[in-house]
Amino acid sequence: MKDKSKRYCVIMCGGIGSRFWPYSRTEMPKQFIDFFGTGRSLLQMTYDRILPLVPAENIIAVTNERYADLVRGQLPDINPDNILLEPARRNTAPCIAWASRHIEAVCPDASVIVTPSDHLITREREFEKAISDGFNFVESHDALLTLGISPTRPETGYGYIQIGEAVTDNIRKVKTFTEKPNAELAKVFLSTGEFFWNSGIFLWSIKSITRAFSELSPEIAACFATMTPAAADYREQVVQAFSACPAISIDYAVMEKAANVYVETVTFGWNDLGTWSALYDNSPKNRDANVTQNCNVLAYNSSGNIFAVRGDKLVVVDSLKDYIVADAGDVLLVCPKAHEQEIKQMVNDAKIRFGEKFL
Amino acid sequence: MKDKSKRYCVIMCGGIGSRFWPYSRTEMPKQFIDFFGTGRSLLQMTYDRILPLVPAENIIAVTNERYADLVRGQLPDINPDNILLEPARRNTAPCIAWASRHIEAVCPDASVIVTPSDHLITREREFEKAISDGFNFVESHDALLTLGISPTRPETGYGYIQIGEAVTDNIRKVKTFTEKPNAELAKVFLSTGEFFWNSGIFLWSIKSITRAFSELSPEIAACFATMTPAAADYREQVVQAFSACPAISIDYAVMEKAANVYVETVTFGWNDLGTWSALYDNSPKNRDANVTQNCNVLAYNSSGNIFAVRGDKLVVVDSLKDYIVADAGDVLLVCPKAHEQEIKQMVNDAKIRFGEKFL
User: Fold this and answer.
1) Would you say A213 and A89 are in contact if contact means Cβ atoms under 8 Å apart?
2) C-alpha dist (Å) from residue B337 to A219, A336, B20, B280, B334
3) Would you call B320 an interface residue with chain A, using a CB distance cutoff of 8 Å?
4) Within 13 Å and on the Cβ side, how many CA atoms surround B88?
5) What is the rounded distance in angstroms from the CA atom of residue B357 to the CA atom of residue B351?
6) B27, exposed or middle or buried, with CB in 10 Å at 0-12, 13-18, 19+?
């Protein structure tokens, strides 16, 4: 059995989940919601999933400072020093740079899994096996490893990774990262067997990611590399770093530029819960092909809908086909699934009309 | 100026308004709701309308005992002795028989207007004039007078009154009462000019209505005629009377059988707020032909809808045409207006599935 004491996890949980508005709200984004009515939020499910893989004291949560109480409340077993509170929204690269520096200061030999907190993962045994294999790989290679999901449909909402030459059974060099494809291209991707969904779950050693930042995104490295977590003015350093650094994703800042990027192809069940339609497609349906997200529904002449309603509420619908019905107490959304791309605009319109109130 | 001291009003406010479920609820039926966001409930608007016509101390509210606190709270100026609490639901005839006996005991020479509490009336000056004329008529004739509304459309949801010979400019003998007609017949009714909507607003003297009950519905008269409001066991008498008497409407028990029935044809604006569609048809619409009942709505590709949402809530809809969207906090209904007749069945289904909780 491998020594796990130098394995760390960074859970990113600062997003606002605006595509799931109004179910996901600025004050209570989707990672904090008990999405499936299981009694555990997506963040808690993420934590539970990581716990067999990494010592509890090595789990770090990075979030926006406005969610400090939510994270503390939902993950009471996390060391408060391991809850990193971002003073500003700067996308994933600064988040990861900071967490990496935080870990480096206590354990320069660490290996790390970085994971979003708002994805659904099923078949957790396969997940555990995959992450163990990934740790072993990055502990013996100077590698930036990303997890690639075998695509099951020509999804246009995800980025894809094209695989290159094999290193092990499941781990290959990355040939290219691609942006979200159009429907035609997505079908080609699916048919070739060479393209995998980019999961946003990464593994690497602190040494490898630190070097990658220095070489590929020196402006970000400069903001975080000299931070000293033990210093009295650590918080000031953090505020200054976030104020100075650009908002940029880890994919763009590092992964797409690095030469030592690998993909581990995995088979566990995965859904990024990125859109209502994706959630609908991947959820169990009743006999009318409706998906009921944790609420009481009486549906007449209705099919293909997804109902997501907070609280103990009864929803009665007649003659709705392929709609999202989402109720968050003070906001109700009724919108065709096919129009879900418009939700961002609706949120903007709500902001113009009513200010922050309903965001 | 006529002496008004013997004029009384009976406001019937014990209904449950189930056709407006879930906006109207068992615990808060529609007459108690501030339907138009004016700050006054339909019941309060009824009271306000009557106040210029009848001395305040002569206004009597009859309701179910479960709504005692609602009526006391909404009509704080009514003498508590004038709030009559029905121990059981028995339709309008027992309600009116009791109220009539209650008035007779203190003023056997009274004249009375009996009115529902959940209708919308506009052009209140015309209303006042019509009621004054009606009082004058029933104070000088042995007459059971009902108010007939000039129909503006071939409505199939109302009962109609066919007019007979004229007695005054606006008051005529009633030739027939008719049940709700089908669409074809309703068009004929409208074209003849002989048919008026039965408003459910009545005027008569206590002597006339008491005699009518005795002669035409002796079984109801027997339950209430001997009641003595001053007696120590008055409440017991009430409970016994309601337990013994049949549930029957005043139309069926008296109006359709009586020989001395008259109709005053009136021109004030009137809507019985009986169905969502009727409310929609008679409400101001925005430029997308949506009706917004006291709530914030962002509507995209949507028209012909009626939105009735309690509380300070934002409703965002896309691609809804001709729907009812009603939200009462713990129940949401989304249903085509054309299916509103199904709402009663939906309420039944909700009862079977969830008990009384959402009624």
Assistant:
1) no
2) 60, 19, 12, 9, 9
3) yes
4) 15
5) 8
6) exposed
Residue of B102, B117, B110 whose CA lies nearest to B50: B117
Q: Say how far apart CA A290 and CA B46 lie, in whole Å.
A: 44
- Which residue is listed with tokens 């990303």? A146
Q: Which residues pair with A83 in a beta bridge?
A: A61
Angle between helices A234-244 and A92-106 (to 10 degrees): 150
User: Of the candidates A238, A151, A244, A237, which has an alpha carbon nearest to the alpha carbon of residue A198?
Assistant: A151
Find which of B297, B314, B339, B352 to mutate to test the A interface (most A CBs within 10 Å of its CB): B314
In chain B, which residues have their Cβ closer than 8 Å to the Cβ of A312?
330
State pTM to two decimals.
0.77
pLDDT digits (tens, 9 = 90+) for B71-117: 999 999 999 999 999 999 999 999 999 999 999 999 999 999 999 99
Q: How far apart are CA B74 and CA B259, in angstroms?
A: 38
A149 touches chain B (CB under 8 A): no
Beta strand pairing status for A195-205 and A111-116? antiparallel
Antiparallel, parallel or unpaired: β A7-12 and A59-64: parallel
**Cα torsion angle, B172, B178, B180, B185, sign:** negative
Helix (H, G, I), strand (E, B) or coil at B60: strand
Residues of B in contact with A342 (CB under 8 A): 300, 318
Residues of A in contact with B315 (CB under 8 A): 331-332, 334
The answer to whether B312 and A358 are in contact (CB under 8 A) is no
Asked if residue B308 lies in contact with residue B294, where contact means CB atoms within 8 angstroms, the answer is yes
Interface predicted TM-score of the whole assembly (ipTM), two decimals:
0.77
For A300-342, the pLDDT digits (tens) are: 999 999 999 877 889 999 999 999 999 988 899 999 999 998 9
Q: Which long-range contacts (CB under 8 A, 24 or more apart) does B16-20 make?
A: B17/B118, B18/B343, B18/B344, B18/B347, B19/B274, B19/B275, B19/B276, B19/B340, B19/B343, B19/B344, B20/B273, B20/B276, B20/B308, B20/B326
| Bridge partners, B294 (sequence order) | none
> Which residues neighbour B260 within 8 Å (Cβ) at sequence distance 6 or greater?
B141, B142, B143, B144, B208, B212
The answer to whether residues A179 and A296 touch, using CB atoms and an 8 Å cutoff, is no
Bridge partner list, A121: A270
Between chain A and chain B, the number of residue pairs with CB atoms below 8 A apart is: 107
Distances (CA, A) of B55 to B8, B33, B40: 7, 25, 20
